[in-house]
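Are you able to produce any protein sequence you like plus the matching backbone structure tokens because I've never seen that pairing?
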Amino acid sequence: MAITRLGTTDGYAMPAHRAYYPPLPTIYRNVGFQLVYFRADPARLRHFLPEPMEPSDDGLCVAIGINVPYSSHYGPFHEAGVEIKVNFQGQSGFFNSHLYLDNVPAICSGRERWGAPKEYAVVTWEEHNNLLVCSTIKDGINIMTISSDLGEPAQPEEVIPVFPSYRLKLIPRADGPGAAIKQIVTAAPEEYVSHMLHRCSGTVTFGGSANSDLRPFGPIEEIAAFYEIASYKETYGTIVYDYLTAIE
């Protein structure tokens, strides 16, 4: 393998001479999505949101379990997280507050590129007859379990849209405390092809430890659930708010 000196305009990620993950786009095939929509206490949700976002009055959230059998950049992995419905800049969207994976390159890529709040955890995806179960185990403690049955076929318009999907991208300064980059970023899949979509009955339960406490999400009620298998392309996002520019 030839080694060349890094030019002044070369490089996009660390390590600079050999980035830990390839350049975009990333291709995903036959990914399973388990979605359980639920309502939580908006006053508790507010603590997870950066200013100037506010939680929706209805306290709507979605718990997501993801089974990735193939990705062109990272290989297979499992993922789980929570998104909160928010009001931001005069429109509704969802803020990705928690995200857990069992694949280190995918964690680094998502955090550094889009500010996805990815942490390493043991995320399991199991099928028990007609029941799907996605469990997230962090530091030996189960902090989230999503379950849903395989229900009847559904139409795409039945699914509550989760876009725009906001993330908070933070990169620390090297010369002192504070952020060198602080932005709200959106990202969405492209060339999305749904292979199967079912409405389900679903539940989500939350646990907590001193390191990872998801108990404030304790659902008031579950209101909808879906299971989908889809293929898509992941590419660049959009910076919709820059904190450091806003305060200059």
User: Anything to note?
Assistant: The chain has one domain: 26-161+190-233.
